[in-house]
Design goal:
Cofactor: pyridoxal 5'-phosphate
Pfam family, one: Pyridoxal_deC
CATH superfamily of one domain: Type I PLP-dependent aspartate aminotransferase-like (Major domain)
CATH topology of one domain: Aspartate Aminotransferase, domain 2
Largest sheet: 7 strands, mixed
Helix content: 40-55%
Protein name: Aminotransferase class V-fold PLP-dependent enzyme
Family: Belongs to the group II decarboxylase family.
Number of helices: 15
CATH class of one domain: Alpha Beta
Bound molecules: pyridoxal-5'-phosphate
Number of strands: 11
CATH architecture of one domain: 3-Layer(aba) Sandwich
Strand content: 5-15%
InterPro entries: Aromatic_deC (IPR010977), PyrdxlP-dep_de-COase (IPR002129), PyrdxlP-dep_Trfase (IPR015424), PyrdxlP-dep_Trfase_major (IPR015421), PyrdxlP-dep_Trfase_small (IPR015422)
Length: about 450
């Protein structure tokens, strides 16, 4: 083990490395130029039999790892939906690792357990949930949706967690839009519903689920002897940021006695803003919600959150003992989710939410949405470039008239400065810019627009 008296020194050294990285985060390339081969050559070693001084590893970390890491927090990172981790969130994560709690039960992290209950309460409050609601912090949206669907299955078919769903006479069907995230397919597969039972419903011109089509499919499936079980609303599709009409979906779910889950891994963060709250109208009627603190709440990875309108459903699906649900019994997170030993994702979320307050977070989310709107308006004015949709949240897809090859060469051309991703929206190859970074300035957006314009006029 490390000699304790030098631990301070290591910690100081490491904190210098982090400070320097954070200070220069927006300077230079976002994605390092390293190839896979380069990285293997630089990093692969044989299994170490003898140990060495930790300072050597810190040096190696500084020399080899840091320069070959993607600067997710850079102001010019406009790709995917990995938001820039906030500095308060980073402090919170460092603090969390420093005391390394495992709050699967109270004694494994008394303070961490209570902070998690508080964060779940705060999140529930933001979404309009009442006191019977509950939830748990998980690794991200994928596990959040998996956890929610496990709870939904037990609520819909009591005893199915015990007996499985091998022998049911009417197979259960699940509905979501064609634009749903791949994590939903995974969850449906893992839980034994079968991906074939996940019905991907047509979307309208705004990439929202087409409600008439949904109802037609449900009616048709009932006629075929299937049992419609759950609707998964999209609250911020990962490609275009489209938010389904949650209010209308909740009516459909009610009419057919189905569970409504909202995948708000990304767009759930829009609840922070007044405008966002309006497009998420009805979300408080959902039976469960996925929302990622590590997306639009600017908490460093990993931090996902699953909320359920009635926490008994989580308990019934994940309890480890035989005790029946008791709303007054203290919460042990072992009985509310999939993991046993688990890190506290609450401590860093608490750091971030308390440091900025909802007012500040909502300003950032609003300014991200404004930026996306501005960017889209300017894109529409450029000859040779086509906007694919009006932004609903903070993602904007567009393409060069010449198509895929030109899109790709533009992405390569700008990679020295900006990092955007390519995407495929309804069969069209396009470029996707996602403004979910608190460091991005309007001058940088103008610079990007200028580059798009120059590139379009070159050909
Ligand atoms: C990111 C995302 C997910 C998956 O969440 P992870 O945190 O990456 O596991 C699911 N759905 C949507 C809409 C997302 O944007």
């Amino acid at each position: 083990m490390l000699k304790l008296e030098r631990f301070d020194e290591y910690l100081d050294q490491l904190s210098d490395v982090i400070k320097e990285y954070q200070r220069d985060i927006s300077v230079g390339r976002v994605v390092p130029k390293a190839s896979r081969n380069d990285m293997e050559e630089l990093l692969f070693e044989t299994l170490p039999m003898e140990g060495c001084d930790a300072m050597n590893i810190i040096d190696e970390f500084k020399e080899k790892v840091v320069p070959n890491s993607t600067k997710v927090g850079s102001s010019k990172f406009l790709s995917w939906i990995i938001t820039s981790p906030s500095q308060a969130g980073i402090l919170g994560e460092i603090a969390n690792v420093g005391i390394s709690q495992a709050p699967f039960n109270f004694k494994a992290g008394p303070a961490a357990t209570i902070i998690e209950e508080m964060i779940i309460g705060w999140m529930g409050q933001l979404f309009g949930y009442k006191k019977e609601s509950g939830g748990i912090l998980v690794s991200g949206g994928s596990v959040s949706t998996l956890t929610a669907l496990g709870a939904a299955r037990e609520a819909f078919l009591p005893g199915s967690t015990e007996n499985g769903i091998q022998n049911i006479s009417n197979p259960l069907t699940i509905y979501t839009s064609k634009k749903a995230h791949s994590s939903i397919d995974k969850a449906v597969g893992v839980l034994g519903f079968g991906k074939n039972m996940l019905k991907k419903v047509k979307v309208d011109e705004f990439f929202k689920i087409d409600i008439d089509n949904l109802e037609k499919e449900i009616e048709n499936d009932i006629k075929q002897g299937l049992k419609p079980f759950c609707i998964i609303a999209q609250a911020g599709t990962s490609l275009s940021g489209a938010i389904d009409d949650i209010d209308a979906l909740s009516d459909v779910a009610k009419k057919y006695g189905m569970w409504l889950h909202v995948d708000g891994a990304y767009g759930g963060g829009a609840i922070l803003s007044k405008r966002g709250g309006e497009i998420l109208k009805g979300i408080e009627k959902a039976d469960s919600i996925s929302v990622d603190p590590h997306k639009w709440f600017f908490v460093p990875t990993e931090a996902g959150c699953v909320l359920v309108k009635d926490k008994r459903h989580l308990y019934n699906a994940y309890r480890t003992g035989v005790t029946e649900f008791d709303e007054n019994a203290p919460i042990n997170y072992l009985d509310y989710g999939i993991q046993s030993t688990r890190t506290s994702r609450a401590i860093k979320t608490w750091f971030a939410m308390k440091t900025y307050g909802i007012k500040k977070l909502s300003q950032v989310v609003d300014s991200n949405m404004d930026m996306a709107t501005y960017f889209a308006e300017e894109i529409e004015k450029i000859d040779g470039v086509r906007l694919l949709h009006k932004p609903q949240t903070s993602a904007v897809c567009f393409l060069f008239d010449e198509g895929a090859t030109m899109n790709e060469s533009f992405l390569i051309e700008i990679e020295e400065e900006f990092f955007l991703s390519s995407a495929n929206l309804m069969g069209e190859h396009c470029i996707r810019a996602c403004f979910s970074n608190y460091r991005t300035s309007i001058e940088e957006v103008d610079l990007l627009l200028y580059k798009i314009k120059s590139f379009a006029s070159m050909e």
